[in-house]
Protein backbone atom coordinates (compact mmCIF):
# COMPACT_ATOMS: atom_id res chain seq x y z
CA UNK A 1 0.00 0.00 0.00
CA UNK A 2 1.34 3.42 -0.93
CA UNK A 3 2.35 5.64 1.96
CA UNK A 4 -0.08 8.40 0.94
CA UNK A 5 -2.97 5.94 1.00
CA UNK A 6 -1.92 4.59 4.38
CA UNK A 7 -1.90 8.17 5.72
CA UNK A 8 -5.37 8.73 4.24
CA UNK A 9 -6.72 5.63 5.98
CA UNK A 10 -5.20 6.56 9.34
CA UNK A 11 -6.43 10.16 9.19
CA UNK A 12 -9.87 9.20 7.85
CA UNK A 13 -10.48 6.48 10.42
CA UNK A 14 -9.17 8.77 13.14
CA UNK A 15 -11.61 11.52 12.19
CA UNK A 16 -14.55 9.11 12.04
CA UNK A 17 -13.71 7.69 15.48
CA UNK A 18 -13.17 11.19 16.90
CA UNK A 19 -16.56 12.45 15.73
CA UNK A 20 -18.24 9.35 17.13
CA UNK A 21 -16.36 9.59 20.43
CA UNK A 22 -17.01 13.31 20.92
CA UNK A 23 -20.69 12.91 20.04
CA UNK A 24 -21.05 10.05 22.50
CA UNK A 25 -19.33 11.92 25.34
CA UNK A 26 -21.57 14.98 24.90
CA UNK A 27 -24.61 12.81 25.59
CA UNK A 28 -23.30 11.30 28.83
CA UNK A 29 -25.25 13.62 31.13
CA UNK A 30 -27.87 12.28 33.58
CA UNK A 31 -30.75 14.45 32.35
CA UNK A 32 -31.31 15.96 28.93
CA UNK A 33 -33.85 16.98 26.31
CA UNK A 34 -33.47 17.87 22.63
CA UNK A 35 -35.54 18.85 19.63
CA UNK A 36 -34.31 17.17 16.46
CA UNK A 37 -37.08 18.21 14.08
CA UNK A 38 -37.92 20.82 12.91
CA UNK A 39 -34.44 22.01 12.06
CA UNK A 40 -33.22 25.39 13.40
CA UNK A 41 -34.48 28.48 11.59
CA UNK A 42 -36.59 26.39 9.22
CA UNK A 43 -39.90 27.35 7.60
CA UNK A 44 -43.07 25.35 8.25
CA UNK A 45 -46.81 25.46 8.08
CA UNK A 46 -48.92 25.99 11.17
CA UNK A 47 -49.50 22.27 11.70
CA UNK A 48 -46.55 19.85 11.80
CA UNK A 49 -44.94 17.00 13.73
CA UNK A 50 -42.00 17.76 16.01
CA UNK A 51 -39.61 15.08 17.24
CA UNK A 52 -36.57 14.65 19.45
CA UNK A 53 -35.47 12.84 22.58
CA UNK A 54 -35.50 13.33 26.35
CA UNK A 55 -34.08 11.29 29.20
CA UNK A 56 -33.63 11.39 32.95
CA UNK A 57 -31.75 9.32 35.51
CA UNK A 58 -32.04 6.58 36.54
CA UNK A 59 -33.72 5.35 33.35
CA UNK A 60 -36.53 5.49 30.77
CA UNK A 61 -39.42 5.41 33.25
CA UNK A 62 -38.07 8.37 35.24
CA UNK A 63 -39.98 10.74 32.93
CA UNK A 64 -43.68 10.96 33.73
CA UNK A 65 -44.80 13.51 31.10
CA UNK A 66 -43.54 15.35 28.03
CA UNK A 67 -44.89 18.32 26.13
CA UNK A 68 -43.71 20.69 23.44
CA UNK A 69 -44.03 24.32 24.49
CA UNK A 70 -44.42 27.01 21.83
CA UNK A 71 -44.34 30.76 22.33
CA UNK A 72 -43.76 33.74 20.01
CA UNK A 73 -40.05 34.48 19.68
CA UNK A 74 -39.01 37.59 21.57
CA UNK A 75 -41.81 37.13 24.13
CA UNK A 76 -40.32 34.97 26.90
CA UNK A 77 -42.98 36.20 29.32
CA UNK A 78 -45.84 34.89 27.17
CA UNK A 79 -47.69 31.82 28.41
CA UNK A 80 -46.54 28.92 26.22
CA UNK A 81 -48.88 26.70 24.28
CA UNK A 82 -48.53 23.04 25.24
CA UNK A 83 -48.68 20.04 22.92
CA UNK A 84 -48.35 16.56 24.47
CA UNK A 85 -45.52 14.35 23.24
CA UNK A 86 -45.50 10.57 23.08
CA UNK A 87 -42.69 8.04 23.34
CA UNK A 88 -42.63 4.64 21.65
CA UNK A 89 -42.76 1.66 24.01
CA UNK A 90 -41.11 -1.55 22.93
CA UNK A 91 -40.66 -5.08 24.20
CA UNK A 92 -36.90 -5.33 24.66
CA UNK A 93 -35.84 -8.96 24.84
CA UNK A 94 -37.37 -10.70 27.82
CA UNK A 95 -37.67 -7.53 29.84
CA UNK A 96 -40.87 -5.66 30.60
CA UNK A 97 -42.00 -2.94 28.14
CA UNK A 98 -39.31 -0.32 27.68
CA UNK A 99 -39.85 3.37 26.83
CA UNK A 100 -37.41 4.81 24.30
CA UNK A 101 -36.14 8.35 24.89
CA UNK A 102 -37.36 9.47 21.46
CA UNK A 103 -40.63 11.39 21.26
CA UNK A 104 -43.00 12.89 18.69
CA UNK A 105 -45.63 15.59 19.12
CA UNK A 106 -48.23 17.11 16.84
CA UNK A 107 -47.90 20.90 16.95
CA UNK A 108 -50.72 23.19 15.77
CA UNK A 109 -49.73 26.87 15.96
CA UNK A 110 -52.59 29.39 16.05
CA UNK A 111 -50.97 32.02 13.84
CA UNK A 112 -48.13 32.62 11.42
CA UNK A 113 -44.95 34.24 12.65
CA UNK A 114 -41.64 33.65 14.37
CA UNK A 115 -42.02 30.95 17.04
CA UNK A 116 -39.72 29.26 19.53
CA UNK A 117 -40.23 25.63 20.51
CA UNK A 118 -38.79 23.65 23.38
CA UNK A 119 -39.51 20.23 24.83
CA UNK A 120 -40.25 20.12 28.55
CA UNK A 121 -40.16 16.91 30.57
CA UNK A 122 -41.42 16.27 34.09
CA UNK A 123 -39.81 13.47 36.07
CA UNK A 124 -41.48 11.16 38.56
CA UNK A 125 -39.73 12.99 41.43
CA UNK A 126 -40.89 16.43 40.26
CA UNK A 127 -37.84 17.66 38.34
CA UNK A 128 -38.32 19.72 35.18
CA UNK A 129 -36.02 19.14 32.22
CA UNK A 130 -36.21 21.32 29.15
CA UNK A 131 -34.36 21.69 25.88
CA UNK A 132 -32.83 24.81 24.41
CA UNK A 133 -35.27 26.86 22.37
CA UNK A 134 -35.54 26.23 18.64
CA UNK A 135 -36.78 29.01 16.39
CA UNK A 136 -38.84 28.49 13.26
CA UNK A 137 -40.90 30.59 10.92
CA UNK A 138 -44.52 29.45 10.62
CA UNK A 139 -46.48 30.42 7.53
CA UNK A 140 -50.02 29.56 6.52
CA UNK A 141 -48.80 29.50 2.91
CA UNK A 142 -46.73 26.39 3.73
CA UNK A 143 -49.61 24.37 5.17
CA UNK A 144 -49.07 20.67 4.57
CA UNK A 145 -45.66 21.06 2.90
CA UNK A 146 -43.65 19.52 5.71
CA UNK A 147 -46.09 16.64 6.09
CA UNK A 148 -45.57 15.61 2.50
CA UNK A 149 -41.84 15.41 3.31
CA UNK A 150 -40.32 12.24 1.88
CA UNK A 151 -42.62 9.67 0.37
CA UNK A 152 -41.49 6.26 -0.84
CA UNK A 153 -41.80 5.70 -4.59
CA UNK A 154 -42.45 9.38 -5.17
CA UNK A 155 -40.67 11.26 -7.96
CA UNK A 156 -37.70 12.23 -5.71
CA UNK A 157 -37.36 8.61 -4.57
CA UNK A 158 -37.47 7.26 -8.12
CA UNK A 159 -34.98 9.94 -9.19
CA UNK A 160 -32.54 8.83 -6.46
CA UNK A 161 -32.94 5.15 -7.40
CA UNK A 162 -32.40 6.00 -11.06
CA UNK A 163 -29.28 8.03 -10.27
CA UNK A 164 -27.77 5.15 -8.28
CA UNK A 165 -28.56 2.65 -11.06
CA UNK A 166 -27.10 4.96 -13.71
CA UNK A 167 -23.96 5.49 -11.61
CA UNK A 168 -23.59 1.75 -11.03
CA UNK A 169 -23.87 1.00 -14.78
CA UNK A 170 -21.34 3.71 -15.62
CA UNK A 171 -18.84 2.43 -13.07
CA UNK A 172 -19.39 -1.16 -14.23
CA UNK A 173 -18.64 -0.12 -17.83
CA UNK A 174 -15.38 1.67 -17.04
CA UNK A 175 -14.27 -0.93 -14.48
CA UNK A 176 -14.77 -3.80 -16.95
CA UNK A 177 -12.76 -1.94 -19.59
CA UNK A 178 -9.99 -0.75 -17.28
CA UNK A 179 -9.76 -3.70 -14.89
CA UNK A 180 -7.53 -3.55 -11.82
CA UNK A 181 -5.58 -0.50 -13.08
CA UNK A 182 -8.80 1.53 -13.41
CA UNK A 183 -9.89 0.49 -9.92
CA UNK A 184 -6.49 1.50 -8.51
CA UNK A 185 -6.83 4.95 -10.07
CA UNK A 186 -10.48 5.41 -9.03
CA UNK A 187 -10.07 4.08 -5.46
CA UNK A 188 -8.91 7.37 -3.84
CA UNK A 189 -11.86 9.28 -5.28
CA UNK A 190 -14.40 6.68 -4.16
CA UNK A 191 -12.85 6.43 -0.70
CA UNK A 192 -12.67 10.20 -0.23
CA UNK A 193 -16.29 10.68 -1.33
CA UNK A 194 -17.50 7.98 1.08
CA UNK A 195 -15.66 9.22 4.13
CA UNK A 196 -16.14 12.94 3.44
CA UNK A 197 -19.88 12.41 3.11
CA UNK A 198 -20.01 10.32 6.29
CA UNK A 199 -18.01 12.88 8.29
CA UNK A 200 -20.29 15.68 7.09
CA UNK A 201 -23.38 13.61 7.89
CA UNK A 202 -22.21 12.72 11.40
CA UNK A 203 -21.19 16.33 12.08
CA UNK A 204 -24.53 17.60 10.82
CA UNK A 205 -26.47 15.40 13.25
CA UNK A 206 -24.23 16.43 16.12
CA UNK A 207 -24.80 20.12 15.35
CA UNK A 208 -28.61 19.91 15.01
CA UNK A 209 -28.97 17.71 18.11
CA UNK A 210 -29.99 14.53 16.36
CA UNK A 211 -26.93 12.38 17.03
CA UNK A 212 -27.53 9.43 19.37
CA UNK A 213 -25.23 6.52 20.10
CA UNK A 214 -28.21 4.16 19.97
CA UNK A 215 -28.62 4.75 16.21
CA UNK A 216 -25.60 6.73 14.96
CA UNK A 217 -22.64 4.44 15.67
CA UNK A 218 -21.28 2.77 12.56
CA UNK A 219 -22.33 -0.72 13.63
CA UNK A 220 -24.88 -1.50 10.95
CA UNK A 221 -24.04 -3.38 7.76
CA UNK A 222 -23.94 -0.11 5.83
CA UNK A 223 -21.90 1.68 8.49
CA UNK A 224 -19.32 -1.11 8.64
CA UNK A 225 -19.24 -1.18 4.84
CA UNK A 226 -18.44 2.54 4.77
CA UNK A 227 -15.60 1.95 7.23
CA UNK A 228 -14.04 -1.03 5.46
CA UNK A 229 -14.65 -0.39 1.74
CA UNK A 230 -11.85 2.24 1.51
CA UNK A 231 -9.56 -0.13 3.39
CA UNK A 232 -10.36 -2.89 0.90
CA UNK A 233 -9.90 -0.57 -2.08
CA UNK A 234 -6.39 0.39 -0.92
CA UNK A 235 -5.19 -3.12 -0.05
CA UNK A 236 -2.99 -5.07 -2.40
CA UNK A 237 -4.41 -8.22 -3.90
CA UNK A 238 -4.11 -10.95 -1.30
CA UNK A 239 -6.29 -13.61 0.38
CA UNK A 240 -7.10 -11.12 3.17
CA UNK A 241 -8.33 -8.54 0.67
CA UNK A 242 -10.41 -11.11 -1.19
CA UNK A 243 -11.97 -12.36 2.05
CA UNK A 244 -12.82 -8.81 3.12
CA UNK A 245 -14.24 -8.07 -0.33
CA UNK A 246 -16.44 -11.16 -0.10
CA UNK A 247 -18.09 -9.88 3.06
CA UNK A 248 -18.41 -6.32 1.73
CA UNK A 249 -20.11 -7.63 -1.41
CA UNK A 250 -22.94 -9.21 0.59
CA UNK A 251 -23.12 -6.56 3.31
CA UNK A 252 -22.78 -3.63 0.94
CA UNK A 253 -25.25 -4.71 -1.72
CA UNK A 254 -27.70 -6.31 0.71
CA UNK A 255 -27.74 -3.47 3.23
CA UNK A 256 -27.48 -0.49 0.87
CA UNK A 257 -30.02 -1.80 -1.66
CA UNK A 258 -32.55 -2.37 1.11
CA UNK A 259 -31.90 1.11 2.51
CA UNK A 260 -32.36 2.77 -0.88
CA UNK A 261 -35.55 0.86 -1.66
CA UNK A 262 -37.05 1.45 1.82
CA UNK A 263 -35.41 4.68 3.05
CA UNK A 264 -35.96 5.90 6.59
CA UNK A 265 -35.37 9.64 6.41
CA UNK A 266 -38.55 10.84 8.08
CA UNK A 267 -39.77 14.23 6.92
CA UNK A 268 -36.47 15.05 5.17
CA UNK A 269 -37.71 15.13 1.61
CA UNK A 270 -36.20 16.61 -1.54
CA UNK A 271 -34.18 18.87 -1.58
CA UNK A 272 -33.05 18.63 2.08
CA UNK A 273 -29.44 17.92 3.03
CA UNK A 274 -30.42 14.62 4.64
CA UNK A 275 -32.06 13.45 1.40
CA UNK A 276 -28.90 13.98 -0.64
CA UNK A 277 -26.52 12.66 2.02
CA UNK A 278 -28.56 9.50 2.62
CA UNK A 279 -28.78 8.47 -1.02
CA UNK A 280 -25.19 9.52 -1.74
CA UNK A 281 -23.94 7.42 1.17
CA UNK A 282 -25.77 4.25 0.20
CA UNK A 283 -25.31 4.84 -3.51
CA UNK A 284 -21.54 5.05 -3.05
CA UNK A 285 -21.57 1.72 -1.22
CA UNK A 286 -23.25 0.06 -4.20
CA UNK A 287 -20.98 1.83 -6.69
CA UNK A 288 -17.85 0.80 -4.76
CA UNK A 289 -18.95 -2.84 -4.63
CA UNK A 290 -19.81 -2.76 -8.35
CA UNK A 291 -16.33 -1.34 -9.03
CA UNK A 292 -14.69 -4.20 -7.11
CA UNK A 293 -16.77 -6.80 -8.89
CA UNK A 294 -16.58 -5.39 -12.42
CA UNK A 295 -12.81 -4.84 -12.28
CA UNK A 296 -12.27 -8.52 -11.55
CA UNK A 297 -11.07 -7.91 -8.00
CA UNK A 298 -13.94 -9.93 -6.51
CA UNK A 299 -15.18 -13.33 -7.60
CA UNK A 300 -18.06 -14.69 -5.55
CA UNK A 301 -18.43 -18.41 -4.95
CA UNK A 302 -20.07 -20.71 -2.45
CA UNK A 303 -17.09 -20.24 -0.13
CA UNK A 304 -17.70 -16.49 -0.26
CA UNK A 305 -21.31 -17.02 0.80
CA UNK A 306 -20.31 -19.39 3.61
CA UNK A 307 -17.58 -17.00 4.76
CA UNK A 308 -19.98 -14.05 4.93
CA UNK A 309 -22.57 -16.04 6.90
CA UNK A 310 -19.88 -17.18 9.35
CA UNK A 311 -18.37 -13.71 9.84
CA UNK A 312 -21.82 -12.14 10.19
CA UNK A 313 -22.65 -14.55 13.00
CA UNK A 314 -19.35 -13.78 14.71
CA UNK A 315 -19.89 -10.01 14.42
CA UNK A 316 -23.41 -9.95 15.85
CA UNK A 317 -22.23 -11.31 19.22
CA UNK A 318 -20.31 -8.14 20.28
CA UNK A 319 -22.87 -5.96 18.50
CA UNK A 320 -25.66 -7.48 20.58
CA UNK A 321 -23.65 -6.84 23.74
CA UNK A 322 -23.18 -3.20 22.71
CA UNK A 323 -26.93 -2.94 22.08
CA UNK A 324 -27.64 -4.07 25.62
CA UNK A 325 -24.92 -1.98 27.29
CA UNK A 326 -26.09 1.26 25.68
CA UNK A 327 -29.30 1.07 27.71
CA UNK A 328 -27.24 1.53 30.89
CA UNK A 329 -25.79 4.95 30.02
CA UNK A 330 -27.46 8.27 29.11
CA UNK A 331 -29.67 8.71 27.17
CA UNK A 332 -30.63 5.19 28.34
CA UNK A 333 -31.58 4.00 24.86
CA UNK A 334 -30.82 0.39 23.91
CA UNK A 335 -29.09 0.05 20.59
CA UNK A 336 -30.74 -1.81 17.76
CA UNK A 337 -27.81 -2.45 15.46
CA UNK A 338 -28.36 -5.32 13.04
CA UNK A 339 -31.99 -5.16 14.34
CA UNK A 340 -30.94 -7.39 17.26
CA UNK A 341 -32.60 -5.46 20.07
CA UNK A 342 -36.24 -5.01 19.07
CA UNK A 343 -38.49 -4.53 16.02
CA UNK A 344 -38.29 -0.94 14.71
CA UNK A 345 -41.28 1.03 16.10
CA UNK A 346 -42.12 2.21 12.58
CA UNK A 347 -42.84 -1.38 11.51
CA UNK A 348 -40.76 -3.90 9.57
CA UNK A 349 -40.65 -7.59 8.56
CA UNK A 350 -39.20 -8.27 12.02
CA UNK A 351 -42.71 -7.86 13.44
CA UNK A 352 -43.62 -11.04 11.56
CA UNK A 353 -40.55 -12.82 12.98
CA UNK A 354 -41.53 -11.81 16.50
CA UNK A 355 -44.96 -13.41 16.03
CA UNK A 356 -43.33 -16.67 14.99
CA UNK A 357 -40.27 -16.88 17.23
CA UNK A 358 -40.94 -14.40 20.05
CA UNK A 359 -39.09 -11.26 21.20
CA UNK A 360 -35.33 -10.70 21.14
CA UNK A 361 -33.18 -12.76 21.32
CA UNK A 362 -35.53 -15.53 20.17
CA UNK A 363 -36.31 -13.95 16.80
CA UNK A 364 -32.58 -14.17 15.94
CA UNK A 365 -33.44 -17.52 14.35
CA UNK A 366 -35.72 -15.73 11.91
CA UNK A 367 -33.08 -13.08 11.20
CA UNK A 368 -30.63 -15.89 10.46
CA UNK A 369 -32.97 -17.45 7.92
CA UNK A 370 -33.77 -14.09 6.34
CA UNK A 371 -30.09 -13.15 6.12
CA UNK A 372 -29.10 -16.44 4.50
CA UNK A 373 -31.90 -16.06 1.93
CA UNK A 374 -30.82 -12.50 1.03
CA UNK A 375 -27.15 -13.49 0.77
CA UNK A 376 -28.08 -16.52 -1.35
CA UNK A 377 -30.02 -14.31 -3.77
CA UNK A 378 -26.91 -12.12 -4.12
CA UNK A 379 -24.76 -15.20 -4.78
CA UNK A 380 -27.22 -16.70 -7.29
CA UNK A 381 -26.08 -14.70 -10.38
CA UNK A 382 -22.54 -15.93 -9.78
CA UNK A 383 -23.70 -19.51 -9.30
CA UNK A 384 -25.80 -19.47 -12.46
CA UNK A 385 -22.97 -17.85 -14.42
CA UNK A 386 -20.49 -20.51 -13.28
CA UNK A 387 -22.97 -23.24 -14.21
CA UNK A 388 -23.45 -21.73 -17.69
CA UNK A 389 -19.69 -21.57 -18.25
CA UNK A 390 -19.33 -25.25 -17.33
CA UNK A 391 -22.01 -26.18 -19.86
CA UNK A 392 -20.26 -24.17 -22.58
CA UNK A 393 -16.95 -25.87 -21.82
CA UNK A 394 -18.62 -29.29 -21.86
Structure characteristics:
394 residues; alpha+beta; nine-stranded mixed β-sheet; two-stranded antiparallel sheet; 52% helix
Word description of this protein:
Helices cover about 50% and strands about 15% of the residues. The protein is an alpha+beta fold and about 400 residues long. It has a domain at about 5-10 and about 150-394. Strands 1, 2, 3, 4, 5, 8, 9, 10 and 11 form a nine-stranded mixed β-sheet that branches. Strands 6-7 form a two-stranded antiparallel sheet. β4 (about 65-70) and β5 (about 80-85) form a beta hairpin. The longest helix is centred in the middle third of the chain and has 54 residues, at about 155-210. It is globular, with a radius of gyration of 23 Å.
Query: In angstroms, what separates the terminal alpha carbons?
Result: 41 Å
The 3D shape can be described as: globular
Number of helices: 9
How many strands? 11
Low-pLDDT sequence parts: none
Strand content: 15-25%
Report mean pLDDT, rounded to a whole number. Answer: 89
Listing every helix as H and every strand as E from the N terminus to the C terminus, the arrangement reads: HEEEEEEEEEEEHHHHHHHH
Biggest β-sheet: count, sense, barrel?
9 strands, mixed
> Structural class, from secondary structure content?
alpha+beta
Helical content (DSSP H or I, runs of 4+):
40-55%
Radius of gyration: 23 Å
